Amino acid sequence: MSEPHVLLVDDDSDIRHLTSKFLRQSGFRVTPVRDGREMREVMKSTQIDLVILDLMLPGTSGLDLCRKLRSTSSIPIVILTAHGEETDRVVGLELGADDYLSKPCSPRELAARIRAVLRRTMVEPNRDHEKWRFVFEGWTLDSRRRELTDSRGVVIDLSSSEYDLLLTFVEAPQRVLTREHLLDSARNRISTGFDRAIDVQISRLRRKLASCPGGDDIIKTIRGAGYMFTPGVIRV
Q1: Which of 46, 75, 127, 234 has the highest CB neighbour number within 10 Å of its CB?
Q2: SS3 of 211, please?
Q3: Per-domain residue ranges of the chain
Q4: Contacts by 145-148 with C-beta closer than 8 Å and gap 24+?
Q5: Do residues 102 and 192 lie in contact, with contact meaning Cβ atoms separated by under 8 Å?
Q6: pTM: predicted TM-score of the whole model, two decimal places
Q7: 184-216 pLDDT per residue, tens
Q8: Phi and psi of 220, rounded to 5°?
């Protein structure tokens, strides 16, 4: 398997140099850039597997770049935020980022987070080779293609963490799942030290499911206990 290609977007030259050096030593191919303009130029001509995106950038902010990138692509995004800036983390997750780290961060932890996100997005589930589609309320979740389609066959874009969360729900329908179980089952590393992460992801997932009639009630909050995926699910 070829080295995963990581695009590092950070305006601090020292951070770009040191982080790029460590990630290359850790088995990644890295292209470092300074801002959104350079990011777009690289992505026009190069296959990128994951973007590390600093939020504090000159010109177009990291949050705006995250929004624009997610509107056209499902490429994994790891955001870097100033220490303690919870608002930026929440907004970044709502825009579709797959993970976050506060700066300054450990290069070793960054490499581990990148590998975890890539595992979620690049490795297909191996739970049941014969039945990999989950059908509920007109929706179909295809776990081979990692695609969610509505009753019209339109593909709904999901981030890797949203996909993991929905897969966890459809595998245990009409059961109360605790927040801790959802975090464990979905392997959602963005939760580390950030209790609102799972709620942000569920809120995003609810909004996407609400695009079809009855979608508002698919994920029900069970006060004091967790969440329940209310429809029956057929596996085909």
Answers
A1: 75
A2: coil
A3: 5-122, 133-235
A4: 146/121, 148/208
A5: no
A6: 0.59
A7: 666 544 444 445 677 888 888 999 998 776 666
A8: -105, 135
Of the candidates 40, 3, 20, the residue with the CA atom closest to the CA atom of residue 118:
3
Answer for the pair 23, 111: CB distance below 8 angstroms, yes or no: yes
Does domain 5-122 bear CATH number 3.40.50.2300? yes
Residues 165 and 188: beta-carbon distance below 8 Å = yes
Instruction: Name the one residue in this structure whose structure tokens are 């902010």.
Output: 61
pLDDT tens readout for residues 161-179 = 788 889 989 988 888 888 8
Tell me which residue of 82, 230, 89, 66 sits closest to 159, measured CA to CA.
Answer: 66
Close Cβ partners of 57 (under 8 Å, ≥ 6 residues apart): 9, 10, 11, 35, 36, 65
Tell me if 123 sits within 8 A of 185, measured CB to CB.
Answer: no
Alpha carbons 177 and 193: distance in angstroms, whole number: 20
Task: Provide φ and ψ at 235, rounded to 5°.
Answer: -100, 125
Q: Does domain 133-235 have CATH number 1.10.10.10?
A: yes
